Every structure is written in structure tokens, then in C-alpha cells.
Amino acid sequence: MAQKRITVNLTEHQHADLIVKLKYDGMAQTKFMRAYITAYLEDSKFIRDFIDDYKEKNKVQNKRKRKKQKRILEKKVENKNKFGLDTYEIEDIFDIIQKEHPEL
What we know:
Elements: H1 12-25, H2 29-41, H3 45-57, H4 63-83, H5 87-100
């Protein structure tokens, strides 16, 4: 699988502060970014709350759209809990089906 690179522009001060905090937590920049992105993609409640708060404070999207997205996410979590499947298990199911029925 091909990997992609993400670049972030920071001020020298922000970069220095980031390096210090990451060293304190014993994390490399790459591990930090991967962990954060994974949590975001998996709809971690902590990250979701942060994003929702950021969008509200910085007027990203209107209130109606944010509320609609929140309902969709809640439904997604409800279905995930109802069926007890996470993203990786769902992908595994599709892989199994593809192996058993390659004509599909």
C-alpha cells in the first residue's frame, strides 16, 4: 500500500513547543500524527468532541449542519454497538465474501 506524506506549516515557536511536548510524552512526530489521525478516522469520542468544539468556536459549518452530522454519527455508533462490529471487522467480512465468491 502506498503511503502519503502530510505537511503542516507551523511557526518556529509552535514547532519548538511541539517537539518539547512530544519528547515529554516520549512520542515521535510521526507516531503522534498517526495516532491522532487514526483516532479521528475511527471517530474517537475525545477527538470528535474536540472537532465539534473547534467547529463551533471557529464558525466552521453552520449550526444546522453540525447538528445533522452529530445525529448521523450517533446513529453510526448506535449501529456499531448494536451489531458489535468495528471498521476492521466489516472489512474482514467483505474480504471473506470476496474470497468465497470472486465473481462478485
